[in-house]
Amino acid sequence: MVQLTSKTLTLEEFLKLPETKPANEFVDGQILQKPMPQGKHSAIQGEFVPFVNTALKAKRIARAFPELRCTFGSRSVVPDVVVMMWSRIPRDENGEVANTFVVAPDWTVEILSPDQSQTRVTKNILHCLRYGTQMGWLIDPDEQTVFVYRPKQETEVFDQPQDVLPVPPFANDLALTIQDLFNWLLE
Hints:
Layout: E1 2-3, H1 11-16, E2 24-27, E3 30-33, H2 39-56, E4 62-66, E5 70-72, E6 75-77, E7 81-85, E8 107-111, H3 118-130, E9 135-140, E10 145-149, E11 156-158, H4 178-183
Parallel strand pairs: 8-9
Antiparallel strand pairs: 1-3, 2-3, 4-7, 5-6, 7-8, 9-10, 10-11
């Protein structure tokens, strides 16, 4: 992430700014730009969202959203993928998915890009967990490793091909191994 300004803004001021590509995030009064996704990042993100939605959306259990801005706890972050339980998806007056999500996701997934700070990404995952997120994944394509974060629990590391990745309780219909996940880079 690139720091764009040293001027301290309020969250309300930040939210009035136009959206950018790649997205800006608001952390500790500063605007930080996410790096532009590259091939491995895009391949995993592009496969993960339909993988989750195929299993959970039709049953109205949960829905995955790519690059969705979530604003809560004095931050505004854009995880690579957020998964929201069906009953917690913000809706507008017509019952449609709302444009603004002012709630922590139920599951946050970050895919590390080559020029991205693992520390900053981890801080965003930990922030989500403090505000009710059930699980966070940090996927490192170069190391073919997934770090799994849960509230008030030790971080788990998965890097063996046969390792089955844990999912939040609402997503028990999903089964994904490290090999399955990183095979998406070969397809």
